[in-house]
Every structure is written in C-alpha cells, then in structure tokens.
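Issue: ligand-bound run for magnesium ion - logging full I/O for the record.

Environment: standard queue, default settings, no custom constraints.

Inputs:
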Amino acid sequence: MSAIILKNVDKSWGRFQALTQINFKCEQGQLLVLLGPSGCGKSTTLRLIAGLETPTSGRIEIGGKDVSYLPPVKRNISMVFQNYALFPHLNVAENILFGLKARKVSLPEQKKRLENAAGLLGLSDFLDRKPAQLSGGQRQRVALGRAIVAQVSVCLMDEPLSNLDAKLRQEMRQEIRFLQQRLKMTMIYVTHDQVEAMTIADKIILMKDGHIEQHGTPEALYNRPETAFAGSFIGNPPMNILTPEPVLMEMLSSRLPGGINPESCQIGIRPENIKISEDQGMEARVETVEYLGADTLIACRFGQQNITLTVKGKTGLTAGDPLKLRWEADHIHLFDASNGRRLENMERGNL
Ligand SMILES: Nc1ncnc2c1ncn2[C@@H]1O[C@H](COP(=O)(O)OP(=O)(O)OP(=O)(O)O)[C@@H](O)[C@H]1O
Ligand SMILES: [Mg+2]
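Outputs:
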C-alpha cells in the first residue's frame, strides 16, 4: 500500500495558481525528495500533505485514507521545519517531548521514548540544555528527536538542513537517511539542493513553476532527463544545453531519428562526458580554468556558445588555449527546442 498519494492536486490563491495537477505516490518506507528552484511549490505541496493548507481541487491520501480536508492533528504525521521551531525557554528533553505531553502519552512511556531518541541522536548528555546553548547541528537533532518520539510512520521535512554549514549538512543528511532507514519511516523531504536530493532520495520529484517536471530515481534523472530543465538542474556543474550551430548540425543530421529537423533540437551534454581530443574533434577555445582538487573545470567558447567540461586532476591548459572536443553519441541528450522535451536517442557511434 502506498503511504502517501496525491491525485490531481491543484492549489490556487486567488488568481495565482501555485500548483497544477500534482500526481505522485510515496511508498511505505520510502524517502521521497521534492526538489526544485525557489518558488516552484515544494513547501506548498508539503503543507498540503501536512494539512496546513487545503487543496483547491484533487485528493490527498495517507495510509489509504482520504485526508484532503482533515486537520493536521488527525493525519498522524510529524513535520520538521527549516527553522527547527524549538521553544527557547524549554530544555532539550522538554522540547523533544512537547508533542507527547500535548497528546497525553503516559510519563513512563515518554521517558522510554526520550531515552531511545536521545541515544539514537547522541543527545543524552544535552537533555538539560536550552536551545541557545546548542550548536546548529544539535538543534537540528532536537527537531528530529521530536519526529522520532512521535512514533508516527510518516515524517515531512522542509529544508531541514539549510541553516547549517556545508560539512554539517553532509553529516546530518547521512544521519537523517540512516535514521529513516533504521526506523522504516516514510519521509517526504523538501530541498532545492540537487546534491542533497541525489544522495538521500529513493525517488525524486523535480518541480518547476508549480508542476512536476520529472519523477524518478536519482539515476533516472541523471541518466535520462525528460526535459532540458531536468538535465540542467541535476548534476554539478550543470549539463551543457547547446543550440545546434552549423558544425553540430552537420554531425547530427545523419544520426537523428527520421523526421526530426536538427535545427529544432537542443543538445544536452554533461561536462564529465566531454573529452579533449588530440586529433579529431570540434574546435573550442579555453576561457577559464578552475582547479578543484580532484577535478578541473574548463569553460570554453565553442562557436557562438559556451561549453563546460570537467577533467580529472590538474591540466596545463590556460585561458586562450585552443583545444578539440569530442563526445560519444551515447552521451548526447536531445531535446525539442520548442518545449524542452526529450527526443528519442540517436544512433550510436562517436561524434
Ligand atoms: N499563502 C500564500 N498566498 C499566496 N501565494 C503563496 C502563499 N504561499 C506560497 N505562495 C506562492 O506559491 C508559490 C510556491 O511557494 P512555495 O513556498 O511552495 O515555494 P518553494 O518551492 O517552497 O520555494 P522555496 O525554495 O523558496 O522555499 C510561490 O510563488 C509563493 O509566492
Ligand atoms: Mg519552501
């Protein structure tokens, strides 16, 4: 049974339509990430599932039950917000147990759940401290503790790590994934950070302007983006999206599936799939070189457009150097320039 289902969900405020035809399922025990740029409707979708907003039309099910118009307390979910929503005058233990007190859970049961959650989260030595006496990561753990002691199987998280520095974010996201798997939680996790999404998700829902652009596993989004937007949103540095200028058109025309005019295509190629060639290849000129340690990022001018490639380690290239580029046809993603949608794969071979 799917833990959470959204069917044809729309949400408008006045004449502004924030969500259009949102359809997805999140299976029991799955970690599903809602990903997309600022304003695309991620938080609105999560708030609809939590019951903090009501849909304009469509239906939301949790555990097989229609909850579209039920208040949050009747939905049996926990939610972790970006700002943690901790009470500054309560200590860690009181903050963690706050929801249980409100739900009149017995004191011995509260104690048991608190000990268990504090042990899992490494907070046992901090139970008497106030939030102001904690680091950002510890505060985040307190907020997670609340979700754990609630012992509900569905947990919703809205950008829970955005207040933390990069290293702590990485640690915390591994911790969240570990806990989610260990406690077999069904989790919907909102982020605008594609690296976060790729590393923790079972499934990603990529959103744009209030609609779902693509729904799939991290591998599917990376290997087979359904739109040019999905191609350029997933991956770092982003996929190059090229317009077919003459040199590319010539190569494309013999390999395109029948009936497709090369002029109406966009060509997507990931920076890590572009090779520097000693002999044959397309001529480009280096514009900038950024050494990142394991890789070097090379931004080039290629005809009338920019193209970025990554190479392993360090290179001797500098701005102004000419170079030849090539890539395998397998690595090309073709999109329809008029609507950004993916076109069929081309014939194999080298380009
Ligand atoms: N209560 C509201 N009234 C009117 N418009 C709203 C309301 N809440 C959100 N919106 C609008 O709905 C759109 C989606 O907002 P939402 O908060 O879901 O975006 P988001 O994807 O979470 O963005 P971010 O990454 O910036 O948090 C935005 O254009 C926002 O301005
Ligand atoms: Mg948001």
